[in-house]
Amino acid sequence: MAERPTLVDPPIETLLNKVGNSKFTLVAVTAIRAREINEYYNGLGSGHGALIPPQVSSLSNKSLSLAMEELYEGKLQFHRPTVEELEAERLHAEAQELARLDETSDLDAFTDALRDA
Predict the structure, then answer these.
(1) Which residue ranges make up each domain of the chain?
(2) CATH number of 1-79
(3) pLDDT, tens digit (0-9, with 9 covering 90-100), for 62-88
(4) Distances (CA, A) of 100 to 21, 32, 114
Protein backbone atom coordinates (compact mmCIF):
# COMPACT_ATOMS: atom_id res chain seq x y z
CA MET A 1 0.00 0.00 0.00
CA ALA A 2 1.52 3.31 -1.06
CA GLU A 3 1.70 6.17 1.40
CA ARG A 4 -0.72 8.94 0.70
CA PRO A 5 0.82 12.29 -0.20
CA THR A 6 0.86 14.85 2.61
CA LEU A 7 1.60 18.52 2.93
CA VAL A 8 3.90 17.83 5.84
CA ASP A 9 7.55 17.21 5.11
CA PRO A 10 8.84 14.96 6.63
CA PRO A 11 5.71 12.80 6.51
CA ILE A 12 4.09 12.17 9.89
CA GLU A 13 3.49 8.51 9.00
CA THR A 14 7.23 7.96 8.54
CA LEU A 15 8.01 9.74 11.80
CA LEU A 16 5.44 7.64 13.63
CA ASN A 17 7.06 4.47 12.29
CA LYS A 18 10.41 5.63 13.71
CA VAL A 19 8.99 5.98 17.24
CA GLY A 20 6.90 2.81 17.40
CA ASN A 21 3.63 4.27 16.08
CA SER A 22 3.09 6.32 19.24
CA LYS A 23 1.90 9.89 18.78
CA PHE A 24 2.75 10.64 22.40
CA THR A 25 6.33 9.44 21.96
CA LEU A 26 6.69 11.46 18.76
CA VAL A 27 5.52 14.61 20.53
CA ALA A 28 7.66 14.00 23.62
CA VAL A 29 10.89 13.15 21.77
CA THR A 30 10.67 16.03 19.31
CA ALA A 31 9.58 18.55 21.98
CA ILE A 32 12.56 17.67 24.18
CA ARG A 33 14.94 18.04 21.24
CA ALA A 34 13.25 21.30 20.16
CA ARG A 35 13.87 22.72 23.65
CA GLU A 36 17.53 21.71 23.39
CA ILE A 37 17.80 23.46 20.02
CA ASN A 38 16.20 26.61 21.48
CA GLU A 39 18.64 26.53 24.40
CA TYR A 40 21.53 26.15 21.95
CA TYR A 41 20.47 29.22 19.96
CA ASN A 42 19.70 31.26 23.09
CA GLY A 43 23.07 30.46 24.64
CA LEU A 44 25.30 31.03 21.60
CA GLY A 45 26.93 34.20 22.91
CA SER A 46 27.35 33.02 26.49
CA GLY A 47 30.18 30.56 25.84
CA HIS A 48 28.28 27.43 26.89
CA GLY A 49 29.41 24.55 24.73
CA ALA A 50 27.43 21.73 26.36
CA LEU A 51 24.47 21.83 23.97
CA ILE A 52 24.42 20.05 20.62
CA PRO A 53 23.60 22.24 17.61
CA PRO A 54 20.99 21.19 15.04
CA GLN A 55 22.22 18.15 13.11
CA VAL A 56 20.44 18.90 9.82
CA SER A 57 20.54 21.65 7.24
CA SER A 58 17.07 23.05 6.78
CA LEU A 59 15.22 25.95 5.29
CA SER A 60 13.09 26.04 8.42
CA ASN A 61 14.17 28.11 11.38
CA LYS A 62 11.62 26.51 13.72
CA SER A 63 13.16 24.30 16.38
CA LEU A 64 10.34 21.73 16.29
CA SER A 65 10.69 21.38 12.51
CA LEU A 66 14.43 20.89 12.94
CA ALA A 67 13.84 18.22 15.57
CA MET A 68 11.41 16.36 13.31
CA GLU A 69 13.86 16.53 10.41
CA GLU A 70 16.60 15.15 12.68
CA LEU A 71 14.31 12.25 13.61
CA TYR A 72 13.42 11.65 9.95
CA GLU A 73 17.09 11.53 8.92
CA GLY A 74 17.99 9.19 11.78
CA LYS A 75 20.10 11.71 13.66
CA LEU A 76 17.70 11.80 16.61
CA GLN A 77 17.03 8.50 18.31
CA PHE A 78 15.42 7.39 21.51
CA HIS A 79 15.42 4.26 23.61
CA ARG A 80 12.36 3.00 25.45
CA PRO A 81 13.66 1.08 28.49
CA THR A 82 12.45 -2.45 29.07
CA VAL A 83 10.90 -3.61 32.34
CA GLU A 84 14.17 -5.35 33.21
CA GLU A 85 16.20 -2.16 32.65
CA LEU A 86 13.81 -0.14 34.82
CA GLU A 87 14.00 -2.74 37.59
CA ALA A 88 17.80 -2.83 37.42
CA GLU A 89 17.91 0.98 37.64
CA ARG A 90 15.56 0.93 40.66
CA LEU A 91 17.66 -1.72 42.43
CA HIS A 92 20.84 0.23 41.72
CA ALA A 93 19.31 3.42 43.19
CA GLU A 94 18.19 1.49 46.29
CA ALA A 95 21.67 0.03 46.74
CA GLN A 96 23.25 3.49 46.49
CA GLU A 97 20.79 4.86 49.05
CA LEU A 98 21.54 1.99 51.46
CA ALA A 99 25.27 2.57 51.04
CA ARG A 100 24.79 6.28 51.78
CA LEU A 101 22.75 5.47 54.89
CA ASP A 102 25.40 2.99 56.07
CA GLU A 103 28.11 5.65 55.72
CA THR A 104 25.97 8.09 57.70
CA SER A 105 25.28 5.56 60.46
CA ASP A 106 29.00 4.66 60.68
CA LEU A 107 29.82 8.35 61.08
CA ASP A 108 27.12 8.70 63.76
CA ALA A 109 28.52 5.72 65.65
CA PHE A 110 32.03 7.20 65.44
CA THR A 111 30.93 10.61 66.72
CA ASP A 112 28.92 8.95 69.53
CA ALA A 113 32.02 6.97 70.57
CA LEU A 114 34.10 10.16 70.61
CA ARG A 115 31.49 11.96 72.67
CA ASP A 116 31.33 9.11 75.21
CA ALA A 117 35.13 9.01 75.59
Answers:
(1) 1-79, 81-117
(2) 3.90.940
(3) 899 999 999 999 998 888 889 999 999
(4) 42, 32, 21
